[in-house]
Amino acid sequence: MLEYITRRLGLMVPTAFLVTVAVFLLIHLTPGDPATVILAESYTPEAGAQIHKDLGLDKPLPEQYLLYVGRLFHGDLGRSVRNKLPVTQAIGERLSATLELGFAALIWSLLIAIPLGTVAALRRGRALDVVASGLTVAGISVPNFVLGILLILFFGLLLRVLPVGGFVALGESVPDNLSRLIMPALALGTFGTASNMRFTRSSMIEVLNQDYIRTARAKGAGWWQVVNRHALKNALIPVVTIVGLQVGAILEGALVTETVFGWPGVGKLAVESIFSKDFPVVQGIVLLSALSFMFANLLVDLVYAWLDPRISYS
Amino acid sequence: MRRAGILLLFALILSACGGGGGGTSTAPAGTPKTGGTLKIAQETEINTLDPNTSGLLVEREIYYNLYDSLLGIDAKLNFIPELATAWKYTDDKTLVLSLRKDVKFQDGTGFNADAVKFNLDRYMTSTDPAAARKSDLASVQSVEVQDPATVVIHLKRADATLLAAFVDRAGMMLSPTAVQQLGIKVAQTPLQAGSGPFEFVEWKRDDHLTLKRNPDYWRKDKAGRQLPYLDQLIYRPLIDLNAILASLKTADVDMARTVAGKDVEAVRSDSTLVYKDTPGLGYQGFELNVSAPPFNDPAKTKAVALAVDRAQILKNVVFNNGVLSYGPIPPASWAADPSEKIYDKPDPEKAKATATGFSFTLKTANTQDSIQTGQLIQAQLAKAGITVNLLPEDFAKLTLETRVQHQFDAALTGWSGRIDPDGNMFAFWHTGGSFNDGRYSKPQVDQLLEQARTTTDQAKRKQIYQEAQRIIVGDGVYVFTHHLNVAQISTKKVQNFMLIPDGINRLAEVWKS
Which residue stretches of A123-173 are H helix? Predict the structure, then answer.
């Protein structure tokens, strides 16, 4: 097991290396000049050239890349060109907000999806199944920013029961934090809710048709025990894969959701950094996203073994 | 005496401008109330709190409440005393400033002539690549402390624009002690560095920036009450205009500078909100690259200028939240002449007779308003037989191609505007100017713009600028379409707000009912 984890962690190094090459090339090949953004209305050609020199942009691209990777090995992601803060600090300051939102979105998607998917599978073809399936189609079809705007319109402007955006730290006020968390978490998590519910349902249907379920029932095991102990645990394996992939989707969705709700997380930082050509911050965020995606996948593989003891990594 | 004459002339010009000049204010309802927090939405996040490296309009929003400038302006753009009580040119190259003696910085140190010298020297000698005040103070040779309350500024050349620079960031004074102690942190956490009505508390980037009341602020209101009235200001960056409007409607913020053009009518008729606007100092339109074909042919630039329907753009894109533009001088300026209207109504037939049957690429930012403006121009010029190929681009790419590489036929760009006409003209149309994207060069214009810089008589400057404007507009090197309004939108609770054409919220005298 330990050997497996070590091997997987070792494989992350070349993957992360490829990510840095891709990100570096993409951001440097997109047209635009950070100097014009930094200087804005104070731009002069001389000041622009000075900024290029200071940021090392006057050097050839391969040299810039080597310097970047060299700094990475020392844990230095560089400094924001917008406000000169270390990238690690810029991301660190916002990470907790994104983690809170991502976690809430994931909880929302699982809390609704698993029971609903299970019930829909047990009541296959009945009214409840049709309604739940219909809702999930809607949930998958509506992009999270549209849902975000609809939530703002309904709960924020029409009913006025929730604040329309912004952020208050948990440490400052728990109720204020939670009231501002609800809508972005719903907007971000609903796509996951829908797809998780569908996977749980189809997986449950498949498992419920297995021989061992019939055997368990024949042996006189209670209905609830069969569903909970025999069916659900086995049905959840594909769901876990999907949830692992959703970590990536949540980071991606956070870009839009955080912007719509003014939630000061990494997603909003990424959007602002892209617009202002703040390439060190963009590189840092993409690298962080890639790493979290890889760790999420590793975690998924480890959870498999726990769910199904027949899967072994030793 | 001369200054009094200039101010009188100023007032006459402004009154002649009708509704064009001056700001609007909410009539205060009853006695000002002290205390409370004002939450302000900002349409973008700021980069720095150090005036030395500032390049964004939204940064000035905060600075004017945190720092004091040497000079102020009133709603009619007249210079008024701030940290300097009087200013006088003893000759063309010597400016004497008399300073207030009762001002303390928030760290308890006194404001005096040494502080002025420290700040101006810091701006002029900064080695930071983003140092932006150097060019504002390019005409300054040296700063001399005559006595604690008098500063003499020696100039390399006469510079009539310097007073306007002292209203803006080049005139903002920070505590020398605080600046030295904070070092580079002054850009992020300028604790007790200003002398303004509010002092810095905290800045959580992309979330909020908090300022609190400066209890020792030197200004009092007309009834002798201590300013400011408010306890706290919280600025929140909300980059989505729909989010700004939603936050205003639910009173999650009290005030904002902008909502989407399409929403203005609804906001005006919303009984819970107050909408005020006045024409701003900037201009909108598109620039033509006269250093390369097709626009190195003057007939073609003129044909384009003749065929554009400005009123249609103003109505359809910005929903008439602005006024038509006939040149770079904004209507609120003392240098404006409302009777000057070259290329007023569109005349496609005359355009056709001037030049037709050519095509060019119009680059725009990839925002909805810019693309829509480009589409209107495309349709308008088609009537004159001119083909426009639209190319929407990322803003950073557009700036690179126009400002740095000069690779464009035409580009839709605008300017936020400055108090002095020089700031709206010199860098754009003087040969080699830093914003002269289209490489326009005309010795006569160069000479006029230089002359205006060295002329201190305002009546004479007005004549010079108008002549320069006539040539620039006539040449069609930039097709001016409109001056956007600056606005202030607030909930009904916000009282005693004065809107100035520079569009910046000064909040010392604002209170909440």
Answer: 127-141, 144-151
A chain contacts of residue B237, beta-carbon cutoff 8 Å = 262
Q: What percent of chain A lies above the pLDDT cut of 70?
A: 99
A45 has a chain B CB within 8 A of its CB: yes
**Helix (H/G/I), strand (E/B), else coil: B200:** strand
CB-neighbour burial class of residue A41 (10 A; exposed 0-12, middle 13-18, buried 19+): middle
Q: Does A36 touch chain B (CB under 8 A)?
A: yes
Q: Whole-model pTM?
A: 0.81
**Sign of dihedral through CA atoms A134, A140, A141, A147?**
positive
Determine the straight-line distance between the first and last CA of chain B, rounded to whole angstroms: 43
- List the structure tokens of A97: 């907000």
CA distances from B264 to B149, B259, B267, B318 (A): 47, 7, 5, 9
**Distance from C-alpha of A196 to C-alpha of A193, rounded to nearest angstrom:** 5
CB-based contact A184:A164 (threshold 8 Å): no
Three-class secondary structure of residue B439 per DSSP: coil
How does strand B68-69 pair with strand B172-173? antiparallel
Give chain A positions within 8 Å (CB) of B47: 38, 82-83
pLDDT at B293 over 80: yes
Q: Buried b vs exposed e over A92-129: b needs ≥16 C-beta within 10 Å? A: ebbeebbebbbebbbebbbebbbebbbbbbbeeeeeeb
ipTM, 2 decimals?
A: 0.73
Which pLDDT score, from 0 to 100, does residue B2 have?
40
Strand pairing category for B208-213 and B232-237: antiparallel
Say which DSSP state B230 is in: -
A122-141 residues touching B, CB cutoff 8 A? none
Measured in whole angstroms, the distance separating CA A47 from the mean position of its chain's CA atoms is 39
State how far Cα A131 lies from the chain centre: 28
Q: State how far residue A65 is from chain B, nearest Cα, in angstroms.
A: 22
Identify the CA nearest to B440 among candidates B413, B473, B391. B473
Testing the interface with A: which of B37, B39, B47 to mutate, by most A Cβ within 10 A? B47
Contact call for B132 and A166, based on CB within 8 A: no
Residue A101: both structure tokens together: 């939102």
Check if A79 contacts B (Cβ < 8 Å). no
Mean pLDDT of A38-49: 76
Question: Cα dist. A32→A36, A59, A64, B5, B96 in Å?
Answer: 8, 17, 17, 48, 44
Give tens-digit pLDDT for B197-236. 999 999 988 889 999 999 999 999 999 999 999 999 999 9
The closest alpha carbon to B388, from B400, B401, B373, belongs to B373
